[in-house]
Every structure is written in C-alpha cells, then in structure tokens.
Design a protein that fits this description.
single chain; alpha/beta; Alkaline Phosphatase, subunit A; 2 domains; ten-stranded mixed beta sheet; four-stranded antiparallel beta sheet; 17 helices; 18 strands; globular; disordered N terminus
Length: about 600
C-alpha cells in the first residue's frame, strides 16, 4: 500500500512537473510578426481608411496602435533593421542593393545584404527554444549563406528579390531575369494556383502545424501586398469599383478626417495636396476611370491581405494557440509612388519597358487590371492619399515615406484599443520581442564572431501603459537613404530631400504638432536647427554614411544598373559567340586539311 501510495506520489509529482514545465513553456507567447509592403499610413480602417480590414482592426481594437512609428524610406534597409535591431548602415543595407551607385557598391555598410556582423531575432529566439518560420519577401541576400534558413529560421519560404508578380513565378522589373523563390534554402517552384497573400498564409499554417504546439513559435509573415505590381482577385477589387471616382485629392481629405476620428492624427492640420499631385479635373473621363480602378485594385489587395491574415488567426483559434500569441503588424515604408505605366502609355522613352512587359506576358488593360497577367500601380497622386495626411511617400524622408501603421496586440495593457503617440523606430522591435519572450540580449560576440549592439529600445513598457515615451528629449535617431536625410530629436525632426522633387535644403518641423510638415521652423528656431544638423553630422560619421553624386536618384539608378548589367551580359554573349566562331573555323580548317 505504501509502495503504491509512494508510486502515486511520484507519478503525481512527475505529472505536476510536466504540467509546470509545459506551463512555463506556454508562458512565453508565440510571436507573429506581420509586415506589409509599401502600405501607406492611412491604408487601414483603424488608421482612417475606407478599405475593409476587419482582422487587422480587431488586432488594433484588442491591442495598441502606434501613430508615430517610423521605418526606413525603402524596403531592404527597413527589413535589415527589423531582423537585426541594428541601424541599416551598420547592418550592411544602407541602400537598396538594386539602386547602389558604383561609388557605394561594396563599401562597408553598403553590401546590399544582411551582414554577418549582426544576429537576427530568429537566431536569438531559435537559441531560446522557439520554432522559427518565415514566409514572403526577404530581400536581404539570395546566396545560400544569406537566405533565411541560414539566418535562424527552421522553415522558410522566401522571395529574395525586391518584388515579384503575385500570380505567377516571374519578375516584375527588368533587373531580374526570373523571380527568385526559395524554400529552406533551395530554389522552389510556385504552384499553378498561386496568389501571393493566400499562398504565404497556407505555408505559414503548414509550418506552424509541423511542430508540437507546446513549444512557442516565432512566425515572420512578409506579405507582397501592396508592392508593385498591384494585383488582386476580381472579387476583392469589385468591392471598390465606385469608391475612388472623386479622385486622389478628395480621398486625401477623407483619409485625414478618418485618421482624426480614429485618434491617430491631431485635428485642424493644414493639409493641401503635395506638389506632385495632378489635378484630377485635368484628366479625361477615360483617364479618371482608369486611375479609379487602379486604386480599387490597390484597395482590393489590402482587403485580400487582411482576409488571408484572418485565416491564420482563425487557425490559431481552432488549435488553441490564439490567446497565447502576440501579433505585431507594420509596414516597411510609405506608399509606392512609381508610375511607369503612365509613362509607358504617353512617353517614347519608356518604350523599352513596354517591350519588356510584352515579352514577360504583362498588360495594362482596363478590363483585367489587377488580375493574372496585368501590371498595375497607383502612382504618386494616389500614393499621397495613401499616406494622408503626411507629406510625400516611399523613397523620401518626409513623414509620408517613413511614418507607417504599427499595431501590437495580445499583451496585457492599460491602453486596450488605444493609441501611442510617442516616437518609435523600426530598430525598437527586436528588443521589444526579446522582452516579450523573456529572451536575453546578445553580447558582443555571437557564434564566435563580433556583432553590432542593438540600436533600438524596448517598447514593452509603452505597450503596457507604464511609460509615455522611450526616447528622451535629447536623444537622437538618424537616418539616410540615397542622400535623403532625417534626424529625430524629441518632438522635432530635420529633413532634407534631394531634387528634383526635394529642394536639397534642411527643414525643421515639430512632427508631434505638425505631422503633415507644413510649418518649417528653420527660420524661427535657427539654434535648434544648427544643433540638430551637427547631431546628424555625428551620426553620419559614426555610421559611415557615404554621400551620393549630384543628380543621383534611387529609381533612375535602378534603370542605370539594369542597363549596365544587360550591357555586360551582351558583351559576354558576344565574346562567347566570337570564341565559338573562332573554334568552329579552326575545326573546319583542320578537317579541310585532313581531307586534302
């Protein structure tokens, strides 16, 4: 009897120990990090949009929204900082790899791929016992040692380029000869029924289900929505076919009113159209009809992303994992302003791109816009509405290029459904995730190599409602991309954008009171301006920022690099042909002599 009782005690103790261990494991939440691509500040319903985003809005209503969160002004630098918590100039991606000028290429910080001098959040969570998954756009290197499977992810479906078609496995710009998709470090082929947002969630669910649920997971879902080409299934686009007939200026004002109602923007801002916005009334009826549908596809693509994200959320509910999951949703930069198709339709200089489109099976027909085989984008005028009420868009260091939506949901907070207006930055997410998961920060050496220290700060106390800010009034955060510059200090920001759209002049704004950057304080507060310019000079020196040549433009540099690449490919082809002709002639001569 005593032996049986002792055995029962031992069994009970063992079960209690197992349950305690499982509870301890479950006390560390799952993390789902969701990154939209080129999503503007007001593109979500919870940020003032008319677009149907119920699943993301549910996360916002059960969590907190950030109204003063900033990223890099372009995708690869943001992704480097998001994965490493280290400034892009130190992490190896100071500029987009596709737009590197010759004087920057290969220089320290300008490798265009995530450096080995940083450790990824996936590495750190993997070391801490997390399962780690990645699906979607990577854009931080495509060799085997640089793909996600070599940077801490157990399973990964990754698209290595800056973008790709959403319906087929084909490139979206001439810089790529193919769309580079990989699974677990090896080239892979997409299914025939592929649509990017749907397939990425399918694979995310597959990966999560592949391991035991009593161990926490980290899942990084990097959507292609709403990067060009802007594409969506017809059933999503059809919802918005009558939504944008009043044009971009009206939408910009409506979005601002929505942002005020949602509490993410102050009232009574002076928000006019920005200089690159075309007068809607100057377009023909046919042009307005086309542009309105282009924006409807854009809205449909956001809607489709939200729908498929909802499928993941439903799956986590069904498997009992939702309540122990923290969701972080953000965009990588502001809305995309490129408008190649308008130039194709009206300017002979773009005939080369039209030829490339035709040769890759693309068209810009109105009837099928957004569907398989189509090529669509919204251009700078609707991009300024997508960023409303902010100034400008992607590539520029004005607020429209750097300030984007960010939501954290699933943590206890006093601010449930509320808004945090403290300045925050993309490098803050790695230390935040480490604190949420109770994971130690890395030391100066990782896996035998020296690594950079984390640049950002944890936002956990902000989210919990225990702190009002994480950056003090004297602390600075600097940024540079292709010669466009910004530096943040307290409520203030200095900014300089290059021409021809920018004016190559320093401006000073109070972005807490004036996020639309309408009132330049440079003349009123020259001492503050000078102090912040000196602070930027120190940042640039410490982070080895390289200047760009006069006339440099990121998008034009992509074209120049394409032409250079194609030129050398042509030279190589001609060289091979010449060698083959020479060898062939030699062989013919030998045969001729042998026959004689």
């Amino acid at each position: 009897m005593m032996k049986k009782y002792a055995a029962a005690i031992s069994l009970s103790t063992l079960m209690a120990f197992c349950l305690s261990a499982q509870a301890a494991a479950n006390s560390r939440p799952n993390i789902v990090l969701i990154l939209a691509d080129d999503l503007g500040f007001s593109d979500l319903r919870s940020y003032g949009s008319e677009v149907h985003t119920p699943n993301i809005d549910m996360l916002a209503n059960n969590g907190v929204r950030f109204s003063n969160y900033h990223t890099a002004a372009s995708c690869a630098p943001t992704r480097a900082m998001l994965m490493s918590g280290v400034d892009s100039h130190l992490a190896g991606v100071a500029n987009m790899p596709e737009s590197l000028p010759s004087e920057q290429a290969g220089q320290p910080g300008y490798q265009g791929v995530l450096g080995q001098n940083v450790v990824t959040i996936a590495n750190l969570l993997q070391d801490a016992g997390y399962h780690t998954y990645m699906t979607g756009k990577w854009h931080l290197g495509k060799t085997k040692s640089l793909l996600p499977s070599a940077r801490g992810f157990d399973r990964a479906l990754s698209m290595a380029d800056s973008g790709a078609d959403n319906w087929e496995q084909k490139p979206y710009i001439p810089v790529y000869s193919q769309a580079h998709w990989y699974e677990d470090g090896e080239p892979t082929t997409l299914p025939d029924d592929f649509y990017s947002s749907e397939y990425l969630i399918d694979k995310t669910i597959e990966y999560i289900d592949s391991h035991a649920t009593d161990e926490p997971f980290f899942s990084y879902v990097a959507f292609q929505a709403v990067h060009i080409p802007v594409q969506a299934p017809r059933e999503f686009t059809d919802k918005y076919m009558d939504t944008y007939n009043q044009g971009w200026s009206t939408l910009r004002q409506q979005r601002y009113a929505g942002a005020v109602a949602q509490g993410v923007m102050p009232a009574n801002l002076n928000i006019n159209d920005i200089p690159t916005t075309i007068d809607w009334a100057s377009l023909t009826d046919a042009e307005r009809r086309y542009e309105a549908k282009a924006m409807a596809v854009y809205a449909g693509m956001i809607d489709a992303m939200d729908y498929h994200l909802g499928r993941l959320m439903d799956h986590l509910r069904e498997t009992g994992q939702f309540d122990n999951t923290v969701f972080i949703f953000a965009s990588d930069n502001g809305a995309e302003p490129s408008d190649i198709l308008e130039q194709v339709r009206g300017r002979p200089v773009e005939k080369v791109f039209r030829w490339w489109m035709d040769s890759n099976g693309y068209n810009d027909d109105y009837e099928t816009l957004g569907e398989k085989g189509s090529y669509n984008m919204i251009g700078p005028s609707f991009a300024s509405a997508a960023a409303s009420p902010l100034a400008y868009y992607k590539f520029f260091t004005s607020e429209g290029g750097m300030r984007v939506p960010m939501i954290i949901s699933g943590l206890p907070t006093k601010l449930n459904g509320g808004v945090i207006d403290a300045f925050t930055y993309v490098t803050d997410l790695v230390p935040t995730i480490l604190d949420i998961t109770q994971t130690s920060r890395p030391g100066p050496i990782y896996a035998g190599r020296a690594i950079e220290s984390l640049s950002g700060k944890s936002l956990l106390k902000l989210v919990e409602g225990e702190e009002a800010f994480v950056y003090g009034p004297e602390e600075v955060v600097g940024f540079e991309l292709g010669g466009n510059i910004a530096l943040f200090q307290g409520d203030f920001k200095i900014v300089k954008n290059r021409g021809p759209i920018g004016d190559d002049t320093w401006h000073l704004y109070n972005i807490k009171q004036d996020p639309a950057e309408r009132y330049d304080l440079a003349t009123e507060q020259p001492a503050r301006l000078e102090k912040m310019i000196k602070a930027y000079a120190s940042y640039a020196e410490e982070h080895r920022v390289l200047s760009v040549a006069d006339g440099y433009d990121q998008r034009q540099q992509v074209g120049a690099n394409v032409m250079q690449k194609r030129f050398f490919e042509l030279l190589s082809f001609i060289g091979v042909v010449i060698v083959l002709l020479f060898v062939g002639i030699r062989l013919l001569r030998r045969r001729s002599k042998a026959g004689g």
